[in-house]
Fold this protein.
Amino acid sequence: MLVGAASMLPGGLGAAEWSLSTLLQSLGKLQEPLLANQATLLTRLVTLWFGFPLGVWAVWWATKKRGLHDSG
């Protein structure tokens, strides 16, 4: 996550992953591109895509609780 913040790029799909993978390789932490890509995708899945369905569910639950859903 710190490397992602250091990249100073917006979190657009593709650009952030490319910069994370490149930074991991250039810093010498992960020399093999496959490992850098896997680490990047794992980080993005855990930090970004875990919260997305949780947020969708929270919005759905909040609107249902307030009665904003159509009843049929």
